[in-house]
Specification:
With 45 residues, the protein is mostly helical. The chain has helices spanning 5-22, 27-44.
Length: 45
């Protein structure tokens, strides 16, 4: 099983959602990290 960006996005979203429910202050950091990762992977394609 190969893990690519399409299979990782739902897993990342699920983990991020759980973390935000547990610690709401993490929302800014999780969104920022997600946007940075998506931007970098978009540039490298």
């Amino acid at each position: 099983m190969t893990l690519n960006l399409i299979t990782l996005q739902p897993i990342i979203a699920l983990v991020a959602g759980i973390l935000i429910l547990i610690i709401p202050r993490l929302l800014n950091f999780i969104v920022a990290i997600y946007l940075i990762v998506i931007g970098i992977t978009g540039l490298l394609r």
